Amino acid sequence: MRILVINNNFFLRGGAERAFFDMIKILEKNGHEVAHFSSKTKNDYHSPWERYFVKYNELSDSSAFGIFEKTKIVSRIWYNFETRRNLRELIKEFRPQIAHLHNIFHHLSPSVIDELKKQGIPVVWTLHDYKMVSPSYDLSVRGNLWEENKNGKMHKCITHRCVYDSYLKSTVCVVENFLHRFLKTFDRVDQFISPSDFLISKYGEFGFKKKINKVVNPVLKRDVNLDLEPWKLGISHHKEGFLLYFGRLSFGKGVHDLIEAYAGIRTNMPLFIAGDGPERENLSLLARQFNVSDKVKFLGKLEYEKLFPIISRCKFVVMPSRLYENAPYGILETMSLGKPIVSSNLGGSREIIEKSGAGILFNAGDVEDLKAKLQYSIENIEELIDKGIKGRKFVEDYYNEETFYDNLMSIYNKLIRE
Fold it and tell me: pLDDT tens digits for 61-95?
């Protein structure tokens, strides 16, 4: 089968890209021809189809552009004609039987759907966030949950500056949402996919009418030496064990809550924090403020070759997010290594922990509850070990690549037949 896969980025930026590249690996492993379509950046992996990639819209620092360049960027966000032209040429050469979209907003734009349908190609779209129903793609504003634009109140995104804390960027994204609703762009997608029941239910709350099938992302076995001694990070010296957080260091991830809660518990085990992000310095200051800077160690951003051995040595992982995570790889990969989790009770995180029994939940944003759950976990570590074993079995049973591949092929074959 000839399959065209489409995503904004062709490098490993986050969980959406992890799902994207894992899907490509599984499809190629099973003998399918796969072509790629994306935008161009200096971080891209090599692709034999990169000559068709389109210009990347730099959105993070709009102050660097004049009014003419800003206008061009906005127009490409709303509807990217370069995307249509380049995609048309790729389709002529590759002749795909089906197309599978991941993240396309802002850089490629939903114009990809118009070109694919003009060419008569069935379209599958995996939803990784809430962008289709809210300009605030993770349903948060300034690190706090935000759902004020329900029931047709899209204008509140502008008044609340829901995108990058900016009136202008929020307005651009609201217009983008209205434009594609007016054009009925999303009605032309043949099948939507979600890795979690939570996202499906949340889309329903926002009035989304199209059917969404659940297909969980696979958790592939990584070629990692779990016997590696990560002594350079000072971890192997802590014989009593340690607690671990890994992921992005932004306010919505709840690491502030974790440091405050950790400062109030009784333990000799240090807390290790792996990752990077805009709150790195503030978190370091917070550790000093709570007099735990000698016990809280920041490891920086680590590739999985170094991160996985660290996960395998911790007592348990803490995931304190204040946001509606969809199907977080941090939780799934922790489970795949047989490690228990203390997690906030929101979104896809709660869904996975409740179904698997792989850990303990606390009320998101509640420092006292997190403190109590950390103390309980430390004092009842044998119970936590059992939860880690359950989590590993759950991932092996339900998040394996064979099940993912079979589910995907069932959808592809049905759409191609139709």
Answer: 555 566 767 777 788 888 899 999 999 999 999 99
> What integer is the mean pLDDT of 146-169?
88
* Torsion over CA: 71, 74, 78, 79 (sign): positive
* 316 within 8 A of 378, measured Cβ to Cβ: no
Query: Contact 56/41 with Cβ under 8 angstroms?
Result: yes
Q: Which stretches does DSSP call E strand in 160-302?
A: 191-194, 212-214, 243-246, 271-274, 296-300
Cross-strand bridge partners of residue 214: 194
- C-alpha distances (whole Å) from 221 to each of 214, 315, 333, 392 are 22, 21, 9, 12
CB-based contacts of 282, cutoff 8 Å, min separation 6: 256
Contact 173, 157 (CB under 8 A): yes
- The answer to whether the CB of 111 falls within 8 A of the CB of 83 is yes
Residue found under tokens 């890209």:
17
User: Could you give the 3-state DSSP secondary structure of residue 369?
Assistant: helix
**Total-model pTM:** 0.92
Q: Is 167 helix (H, G, I), strand (E, B) or coil?
A: helix
Question: How far apart (Å, rounded) are the C-alpha atoms in residues 10 and 12?
Answer: 7
Per residue in 121-134, pLDDT tens?
Answer: 999 999 999 999 99
- Per-residue tokens: 365: 């944003």
Element (H, E) at 24: helix 15-29
Cα of 309 vs its chain's centroid, Å: 22
Rg (CA), the chain: 22
> ∠376-245-291 over CA atoms, to 5°?
75
How far is it, in rounded angstroms, from Cα 320 to Cα 253?
A: 6
The length of the chain in residues reads 418
Q: Comparing C-alpha atoms, which of 158, 164, 172, 174 is closest to residue 142?
A: 164
Residue found under tokens 């896969």: 5
